[in-house]
Design a protein that fits this description.
Helices cover about 40% and strands about 20% of the residues. With about 425 residues, it is of the alpha+beta class. It folds into two domains: about 240 residues, BirA Bifunctional Protein, domain 2 (2-Layer Sandwich); about 90 residues, Rossmann fold. The strands form three sheets. It has an eight-stranded mixed sheet, with helices on both faces. A five-stranded mixed sheet has the order 13-12-14-15-16, with helices on both faces. Strands 2-4-3 form a three-stranded antiparallel sheet. Helix 5 packs parallel to helix 9. It binds adenosine-5'-triphosphate and magnesium ion. Adenosine-5'-triphosphate (ATP) binds next to strand 6, strand 10, strand 11 and helix 11.
């Protein structure tokens, strides 16, 4: 017996409706926000993520599934959706189409991490990316889309935290201040943070080690280093969110794990799913398109982790209604009525009704037992009499109530019910 790889999960037939439910909600929200779906390959040239996600990030440093294919090229399973979306945008010349280009995706993502609750090696994201707009309205819209998606799922126990990490100019200033603050404390930081100190001081604030977190608490806030343009932009985003009734707190410690962010960054966080509390994260990334070879194009987006959302929904009692699988089960007695059951099921199916019949050569009694077990909504038994009269007794399983319905009228009856 060969087992499933560590950190991956099957979706079982009895559970897939939950995935469909969440994906349907994602698509519905995307539609209302006028976003078009994009799909990018599961693997890309490794360089795309090295340049796109950033050499100094955990994702690129430690977590990528990178391998050489038979042609000797280095390829990587996508660890996130943005880099591929940006490549798609540039490679297909979408910068020449009417802006903004508003996109969304639902995709698996792969990261070599230590598997634990809410942390998998293959997980799934619903993400949106909006290209071309530098306006604070777009930041607010992207946050609102995430917020409505969570609301639509019945998730209430999350809070929105936002921050601005400025532009390259104010960030350079801030990095200097951070280095001044951390320099005398270097010895108390974890090993990773000591390397971050040199390569990307901003990322020091993202450390999850308790000791580092304590030290981080005293670090200067980026908000004091924002240049006037960035400060104005952030004020406007906050105003717009308030005007839309979106609650948030400003958390100057949010920097996000990936290198490409500029200005607005945000996370939806919950205390109800353990240590991996971020269910959705995103922000603005005005420099990424140009750094990957496209024309200067501002952009903003988010990605929500579907497994974490599911966990949160389970832990907070947000319900996912289980759909009826079999609307009607048609049981057959002998060979000719079994053929009739097959034909009736086929006709009903062609009319859009989920109809089922016996595939196991069971007795009528066992067929009925099966129909009950699998939760068929209605059951009809076909025998000689029913074939002769063209009328069946249609039993509603939930109530035990039965009505006589003409076989030819079954479809109309079920559609009306
Ligand atoms: P974390 O803080 O867990 O390391 P991250 O900052 O690496 O998250 P992002 O790159 O922002 O995460 O990804 C967006 C979302 O994808 C996260 O908020 C989370 O919901 C989900 N996610 C990220 N990594 C994993 C994983 N290994 N397993 C399951 N979900 C994940
Ligand atoms: Mg991570």
């Amino acid at each position: 017996m060969i087992n499933i790889p560590k950190g991956t999960k099957d979706v079982l037939p009895s559970q897939s409706y939950k995935w469909q439910y969440i994906e349907d909600k994602a698509r519905a929200v995307a539609k209302r926000f006028c976003l078009d779906e994009i799909r990018t390959p599961a693997f890309e040239h490794t360089e795309l993520f090295q340049r796109g996600v950033g050499e100094t990030t955990d994702v690129v440093n430690k977590e990528m599934y990178t391998f050489e294919d038979k042609g000797g090229r280095s390829v990587t399973l996508k660890p996130e959706g943005t880099a591929g979306a940006v490549r798609l945008f540039i490679e297909n010349g979408l910068f020449s189409s009417p802006l903004p280009v508003k996109t969304f995706y639902i995709t698996p993502a792969f990261r070599y991490e230590r598997p634990q609750s809410g942390r998998l090696r293959e997980f799934h994201q619903f993400g949106i990316e909006v290209f071309g707009s530098a306006a604070p309205e777009t930041d607010a819209e992207v946050i609102l889309a995430a917020s409505e998606f969570l609301k639509e799922l019945g998730i209430k126990q999350v809070r929105l935290e936002i921050n601005s990490i400025g532009c390259p100019e104010c960030r350079a200033e801030y990095n200097k201040k951070l280095k001044e603050y951390f320099k005398p404390r270097l010895g108390e930081l974890c090993e990773t943070c000591r390397t971050r100190f040199e390569s990307n001081p901003l990322r020091l604030l993202d450390c999850k080690e308790e000791e580092c977190k304590k030290i981080n608490a005293g670090a200067p806030s980026i908000l004091e280093s924002l240049c006037p343009d960035c400060a104005r932009h952030f004020e406007r985003v906050k105003e717009l969110l308030k005007a839309q009734g979106v609650e948030f707190t400003v958390n100057p410690r949010i920097v996000r794990g990936l290198d490409y962010y500029t200005r607005t960054v945000f996370e939806f966080v919950s205390d109800r799913i353990g240590a991996q509390g971020t269910v959705c994260g995103g922000g603005r990334y005005d420099g990424l398109v140009s750094s990957l070879g496209g024309p200067q194009t501002p952009a903003t987006g988010f990605a929500a982790g579907i497994e974490r959302l599911m966990l949160l929904m389970e832990n907070t009692g947000a319900e996912i209604p289980k759909p009826t699988k079999i609307r009607i089960y048609i049981a057959g007695m002998d060979e000719s009525s079994r053929s009739a059951a097959f034909t009736i099921a086929r006709e009903l199916r062609q009319a859009g009704v989920a109809a089922e019949f016996d595939h196991m050569e069971r007795s009528v009694k066992s067929q009925l037992k099966y129909a009950d077990k699998v939760g068929a909504e209605y059951v009809a038994v076909i025998g000689e009499d029913e074939l002769a009269t063209g009328v069946v007794s249609l039993k509603k399983m939930a109530t035990g109530e039965a009505v006589a319905v003409k076989i030819n009228d079954l479809c109309a009856y079920l559609k009306k019910e």
